[in-house]
Amino acid sequence: MSVLGSQGQSSSLQRLHYVEKRIVRLLELAGAAMDELGNASAPKTEVLALHCREFMMAIKSRYWYGVMLV
């Protein structure tokens, strides 16, 4: 394998790792919101709003794969 091919593969793996971390973070935020909704003593609206706001900011982020999307 050439050096260029190896660098391209490494770059692809780095992007894949970044996307994986991003997906995990989105699932964590969604899970936190669901946990709060399932709170037996009534969900706290300010906590729920915070989780939802963080989730939407992460979803709307224009930064994917290590490059700014247009």
UniProtKB/TrEMBL annotation:
InterPro entries documented for this protein: Mediator_Med11
Location of this chain's protein in the cell: Nucleus
Keywords per UniProt: Activator, Nucleus, Transcription, Transcription regulation
Record's keyword annotation contains Transcription regulation: yes
Any GO MF annotation of the entry: transcription coregulator activity
Biological processes per GO annotation: regulation of transcription by RNA polymerase II
Example of a GO cellular component annotation carried by this entry: mediator complex
Superkingdom of this protein's organism: Eukaryota
Quaternary structure and partners: Component of the Mediator complex.
Full protein name: Mediator of RNA polymerase II transcription subunit 11
Lineage of origin: Eukaryota, Viridiplantae, Streptophyta, Embryophyta, Tracheophyta
